[in-house]
Each structure stands twice: as C-alpha cells, then as structure tokens.
Amino acid sequence: MEMDRESGKLEQIVSQFRSKILHVILDSRVPSLHHHHQLQQQESLSHSRVRKTDKWFNLVLGDRPPALENLNFSLRNLLDPMVIDIILVHRGSCSSSVDNLYSPSAPAVGPADETVIERWVVQYDCPRFIATPSGADASVSYKKIYKKSIILLRSLYTQMRLLPAYRIFKQLSSLSQTYNFDLVYKVSSFSHPFSREEESGMKEYSFAPVEALSGYLSVSVTYRATLSDFNLEPLVSLPPKIITDYVGSPTTDPMRSFPSSEKGAHATSFPLRGARPPSSSPFQRPHSWSSGFHRGFPSTKTQSLAGSPPAYRTSPKPYDIASTPTDLYGNRIQNQRVSTLQQVTAYDEYKSSPPFSPSASPSTPSYLSGANPLLTRHCSETAPVTIPLPLTGRSTRYLSPNSSDPSRHSLPPLSPRSSKHDASSQESPSGIRSYRKIEALRAGESPSGLSNNYSAQKVVRDSKDDSGRFSALLSSSGSPHIGFSRSSSRLSFQDDMDDCEFSCAFDVDDVDVSDSSSQNTEGKKASEFTAQSNLVGKKSQDAAVGILVQMLRTAPPLRQDSSCYSTHSLRTEYEGGVSIASGFFMPRKTADALEELNSYREMKDLLLSKSGTRVVRQEEMK
Amino acid sequence: MNCEVCQLKELEVEHFEIREVLRCILHTIVFHRALGLVRPKDVDLELFEITYVQCGDVELEKKIDEKIDHFISWVEKHPNKKSQICLSFYEVKSKQPSWFTNKTERLYWEQWYINLNVTQHPKHHSSKSHHTKLVVDPGESATEERSSRRAMVEASLREVLFQIIKFVNEKKDHVPPISEGVIYFPYEITIPSSSDSAFGMDMIKRMLHSGHPTMLS
To answer: InterPro entries annotated for this entry (chain A) (predicted)?
Structure first.
C-alpha cells in the first residue's frame, strides 16, 4: 500500500513536471496562448491568488491553456516521451492545414510552409526497477527529486528566452505588426525524424537529467541555430483608405455589451487580412474581420439591424460585425485588457479614420489594414469602434464618404430630406465632420464655421482620454485636419475644408426631427443622442476630430449669404434618390422642390438659432 | 556540503553597460536559486537583444540595484580595471561561540564570480558618456565598430548566461533543502572595496568564517 502511495507520488511529480514544462514552452512560443496568459496575468495580479497548478514547482505561470489539459489526458502514459514541436508556419496568401481554424473563410490558395524550428523532448526513463524507498527515506528522496525538478524548470524557463526562437515569438506576439508567419505547436508521443538537411542546421541541448528513484527525468531540445532564413517582415501596411460609402444603422445601441470577449481576446494571427487590399467593397471589408470575429463571437446578432431600414444598409455583413467590435472595445476599456501604448495607438489610428457610422467597424478593417495592422491582427481585442457609436442615426447621413467605393454614396439618409454626401465626398472627413458637428451642437455651439470645431474639440477633449497622444493632437491642433495627421485623408480633407459644396451637414437634427417617414422614431433619436453624448464623453477624441472635419466639409456657409446656402442645400441629396450634383437639376415636381427648400430653411434656422438659443425641436417637426 | 564555485567568463564592458549586464547576470543566478514560490518576470535588456528572468521580488531587486550602484561608484574611482563581483549563497548555522568566532556562522555553499573588465574607449569623451552621445570621430567606421563591439558584448553575455544554466543544471546536490516560506536562499554580494588589497581580505575573512571549502563535506 505504502509502495503504491509512494509510486503514486512519483507519478504525480512526473505528470505535473511534464505539464509544467509544456506550459512553460507553450507560453514562450505560441503567441495566441501567450496573449491568453497575459490577460490571465492581468486579472490574477489584482487578485493575487495562486492557483493550485501554479504551486507545482514553485513557478507561477497562470492558468493552464485548455489545450494542455487535453494533451495531458492524451499523453497519459508517463513512460512515453512527450515531443513538442514548435513549428513556424509561413503563410503565402492562404491558410494552412495547421491554421485552418483561424481563417475559416480565407481561401486556400496553396500550401503553407511549415518548418520545425524547435523540438523539445521530455522523457521519463525508467530502465530498471528499483525498490521504492519508504518512510523517511522516501520523503527525503521525493523532496530531492522535487527540488531538482524545480531547478531544472528554472533553467528551462531561462533557456526558453535565450534560444533563437524566442525572438521570433516576440515579433509575432507584437500587437503592432502583422506577419504572414505564425508559430504553432504540435505535441505527440513520437517524433518524425528530421531530414538530413534539417538536421544540419540544428543544434541540440540537453538539460542534466533529474534522478528520480528508478529512473530519470530528462529534457532536451533540438533547435535551429539560426532563423535568419525566415524573413519575418511585417506585412506591407497599406495606405489608409477612406471609405466613402460607409454605412451604419441608426439603431445600434452603442452601449450594448457584447458576449464575453474571452475568445476574442485570444485573437490569433490573421496575417491574411493584412494582405488583403483595402480597396474592397463593403462586402469584402468585413471578410477580413469576420473570420476573427465570427470565431470569437459566434453569437453575433443582427438585432441592431432590426430597426434600420434596408436602404441604410449597403451590406448587412459589415453591420453584423459592427456591433461586435463595439463591445469588444467596450470590454477592453472595462477590463483594461489593452493597456499597451501600441494598442492605444492603434485605436487612435482607428479613431482618426473616417468611418462614422454605428457600424464603423466593417470599414475599419480595410481602412486599418493599411494604417493599422494591429487591428487587423488582433481585431477582436483592438477594434476601436467607438467612433461610429456616437454617430448613430444622425450622423449616418454624413457618412457616405466612408465607402471605399467612391461611386457609392450609399449613406442611408434617415429621412427623405436627409442629406447625403455626394459621390465627390469620397473623402473621409465628411463623416468626421458630421461627428464634429454633432459634438458642436451638443456643446451648444454654433455649427457654423470652424469655430465649432474648437468647441467640439474642447468637448471631446474633456472626455476620457485614452491616449495622451491624441489629446496632444487635439490640443495642439488648431484645425480639425490635424487630428488626421495619421490619416492619408488629410490632404483630401483639407480640400474639403475649403470646399463648401456640401451642405446640410446640420440636417441631422432637422431631418431626424422633421422626417416623419424616417424609420427613426423620436425615442430612438433621443437614445441616440444620449448614446452619442455618452460616447462623446467616453471616447473618440479622434472621432470628434473626424466629426468636426465632417462638419466643416458639409457645413454650409451660414455666416454667408443665403443664396449660397440654398444653392448648396439644393445640392444635398435626399433619400428620395436625388443625386447631389444633379439633384438641383433633375426634373422634379415643384412641390418637392418647395418642400426641400423649406426643409433647408428650417435647418438653417435651426442652426442659426442653436448658436444662440435653444431651438425647440418640435418646431422643426412638420 | 561542498561550496561550489563558478567563475564566469570575463566580460569586457563599457561603463554605461555595467548596470544592465550586472542586473542580467545577478538576477539570472538568483532566479535559479530562488526556489520558493516565484512569479517570474521577464525583463528585456535595452542595450542588447536579450531577455532575462527576475524572480519578481521587489526587495531583492532593490538590494541588487544598490550593490550595482556601489560597484559603479567604485569603478568610477578605479577606471580601466578588471574587477570581480562575488555572489555567494550561504546557510546560517548556529555555532558554539568561541573566542574568535560569532555565535552564528555562515556556511557558504555556492559562490559565483562575475568577472568584468570595464573599458573606456579612447574615442569616447569620458567614462560617463551616455551610449547615445556622439562619438568624437564620426563616420561609418566608428558606428560599425561600435555595433560590432556591441554584438560581441551581447554574444559574450549570452555565453555567460548559458554558462550559468549549465552550471546550475550540472550541480544540484549541494543545494540545501528548500525551507518553507523562504523564496530565495540567503545571499551576499561582494564588490571590490576601496583598496585592492581589501578585496583579498574579504576573501580571507570569508574563509575564516566558513572554513576552507574542502574541509566542508
């Protein structure tokens, strides 16, 4: 009985030893598991609790990856060696068989290149039977075995950081770059021998075995001495592209929480996304996100779409996903998961992007795949989708320029009288300006001219500042376009600033109010405003900049002459399908034209009055 | 119990590299001798592409930094000299008081000698030059020389770390049993004192206290 107990102890030590080694190796070589671990660490540090598994060998590593438990079970026979292969997968433009889980929707163009860069072999050799000591001797023996195992694990832990593969692991773990490489692992109880060619470039290192009664525990590694053959270049960052036909639904609840982002938190690498050209239609845009999001959020709902009129949706897909990142971001903020400056930087980059609709995220991937690989790589963690949130509803009308397809000004107006940006507004700032305008309006400032921008800037500046960088940008910028310093849309935006041809940026309030046929009810608008204000208060200083830009672009010259305004206003597009440039000239019934004129006059009045006094909304309702 | 001694490979470092190099080596050794419950902390060196591991104990980190500061002050007073830092692990044993020893005795069971050769390159302005300071003699050759020198130091440091791992793995029997609640074994860092001869005196003192290593078994 005692012998059984004693041998059970040894078995336990050996089993835990193997698990611990596997944990150390996976945590130091597999980026996705490492990120999971990091999140666990952040959470556990606050609780400062030590798990049972951490106490083994006095090395706190955090939660074991679920895969580890499965592996332990499959490698129950302790006498079998445990072979852990660390494989560097080089993806061309496709997913490999190893990585097929990550991008289910990615087209498989060709096989991926897989190279075993490290092979760890953990073995418990028990060549002969030795009578198990009992009593005090046994205790001393087990303590010695345990102590020596601890030392071995310490040196293994240190060694993991000195081998060449660690550098690759660090690069691939970096959240600021996307690569078309990935590190994966394979655990088995046998190993395929290396080819002669492979062996020639490999070195071997064996840790001193730990004597364990009748046998010994040994750990050895065969590793590639040099990994410079693998050109780990970050994926080409594509230039940021303004999405001009960015669409969103006014019914998105920006504060809606999403399902646990646990899965999403372990975003695996999505290098393919980075390789995709950003200039894809909205239907293609979500593709690059979907794999990641759908993976992490199988329950992505479309309820947010429920209230939005079909006309508003150029592509349901982007919007489906849209809501998800919002909450991801929300979760991120709440859980403080993303704490690195890089991540914040990425978010800021995103903020400066023009997609201003509640479903901003769909446009984000294509926009950011160039500007912000971080988001493409770890979309579920870093989808900074707060920008679109405040723009629920009212700003959607402004957001046509966000489409990557300039010819599609499919920004769904909220009402027949809602203004839409025309085709020429392929610049992103329109969406930004609209957001800005909203902020200005909320701040009670006159939306006219650039003065609003500053007030709006102040408004958003007061809001929670996620990044010191952006607040600096805002505070140092005298004009909204500076907020786009990272955006390639700056130039176009500056053009837009000078171009007052888009009007009715201020329609949003009027249209919302006055549009009886709009699918947005008052209540919705109110909630949207609330949501907007909440979001304004919360984040998106960059979004504020964007909105401001948008406002500026679309703002009619109110200080100006009314004739100019009316001209501009007439160029505003209605949902009725009047194209902007031609709307003025399209044959229409007089009644329609008169109605349009009236609506513009009302908007003008509203804006003018808002600069001074509060305008009762009901007045505009007709 | 034997007192195992490990002489680490000599490193030729510049003044501004001392802190990072010493931190790396000392913490790596202590991590292997902190056999209590630790939460390992990875630290990336700034000057070199090396990541080492600390055992995460704040007190320990402070003490090590203090010693490094003392050492740097010493180096400033004795430039261009080879120096040795000794990291010793001991057990405290109570002994019968005699007329020349104290009640408690330190039994050193392991000693690590870190050998540094702090150099001052003539091209640099002074021993306190920051690594970003402009070289007097600008030009590609100076930059190349600097980067190749840096690469050499990095390779040497890496070798030292491998040496530590090897030593730690090969010699385990002399390590005392782990005490409950103790994170790391008692240790002592000895740096050269003001006079050269004093360093030797320290060694003699230690030998008197612990007895000759070969006498202990």
So the answer is: ATG13 (IPR040182), Atg13_N (IPR018731), HORMA_dom_sf (IPR036570)
According to DSSP, residue A528 is labeled H
Rounded CA separation B22/B18 (Å): 6
Tell me the torsion sign for CA atoms A278, A280, A282, A286. Answer: negative
What fold does the segment set B4-215 form as a domain?
A: Cell Cycle, Spindle Assembly Checkpoint Protein; Chain A (3.30.900)
What ipTM does the predicted assembly reach? 0.83
Which residues in chain B are closer than 8 Å to A58, comparing Cβ atoms?
35-38, 178
Residues of A in contact with B160 (CB under 8 A): none
Give the C-alpha separation, A85 to A170, whole Å: 18
List the single residue in B32, B37, B178 with the smallest CB-CB distance to A147.
B178
Q: Burial code of A152-161, b = ≥16 C-beta within 10 A, e = fewer?
A: bbbbbbbbbb
Q: Please provide the size of chain B in residues.
A: 217
> How many domains does one find in chain A?
1
Give me the pLDDT at residue A480, please.
Answer: 43
- Are A154 and B49 within 8 A, CB to CB? no
Task: Tell which wins on pLDDT, A442 or A246.
Answer: A246
A97's tokens:
């068989």
pLDDT for position A374: 42
Residue at token pair 């630290």: B43
CA atoms within 13 A on the CB side of A230: 29
Position A529 pLDDT exceeds 90: no
* Positions in chain B whose pLDDT score sits under 70: 1, 95-102, 121-139, 194-217
Task: Give the helix ranges, DSSP H, for chain B.
Answer: 18-33, 58-77, 140-170, 196-210
A47 lies in a domain? yes
Answer whether A155 sits within 8 Å of B177, measured CB to CB: no
How many CA atoms are closer than 13 Å to the CA of A357, on its beta-carbon side?
Answer: 41
Contact A158 B177 (CB under 8 A): no
Distance CA B22, CA A23 (A): 29
pLDDT higher for A435 or A12? A12
Cα atoms in the Cβ-side hemisphere of radius 13 Å centred on B146: 20
A100 is a domain residue: no
Query: Is residue A558 included in any domain, yes or no?
Result: no
Cβ(A240)–Cβ(A275) under 8 Å? no
For chain B, domain boundaries: 4-215
Look up the pTM and report it: 0.53
